[in-house]
UniProtKB/TrEMBL annotation:
Gene3D superfamilies according to UniProt: Winged helix-like DNA-binding domain superfamily/Winged helix DNA-binding domain
Xref: PROSITE patterns: HTH_MARR_2
Residue stretches making up the HTH marR-type domain: 22-164
GO MF term list: DNA binding; DNA-binding transcription factor activity
Domain of life (superkingdom): Bacteria
Stated name of the protein: DNA-binding transcriptional regulator, MarR family
SMART domains: HTH_MARR
Top-level taxonomy: Bacteria, Bacillati, Actinomycetota, Actinomycetes, Micrococcales
Keyword list, A-Z: DNA-binding
Annotated GO biological process: response to stress
Amino acid sequence: MDLELNYFSNGPEFSDRSQLTQPEITQCMSVMEALRNWREADRALSEASRRYMRLNESDMRAIRMLMQAQKQGRVVTPKDIAHEVGISSASTTKLIDRLVVAGHLIRAPHPKDQRTICIDVTPQTAQAARETVGRQHARRFAAAAALSSDERDVVVRFLTALAEADEPQGDLAAQ
């Protein structure tokens, strides 16, 4: 187990363990360790995808958002990309320029607003992303399919509770 997990998870000042036996505490720690291992594997896979496509994190976020928008039939402007990625309009222009030159994006006239343009993912980039993400999704789906129906229900409840537990609280929510 890594230092962060040991430091933050083992202290009784953060979690009430009075109703748990030592084997139950150990089992909970194993769940936390398995989550950490999955997060590391997910992070490594994302990094490998970025290297394969020669993209940085902002580029990948923009492309993911554009592909989702294309699936939904939505038009995306540079302003939409700036909002999604959390960067300035100047940085968005540089991002789009870089991805157009690299053959990942295309600019097109906006269908309703002549003052702006819309941005689309090239068919080649969409195909490459679908293939890599598709393979990843298929492996994850197979892992879920290998569980029983009851086990999947437990996992869904756990992950939903974990997502709720990870909502920013107090000082973090204000930022």
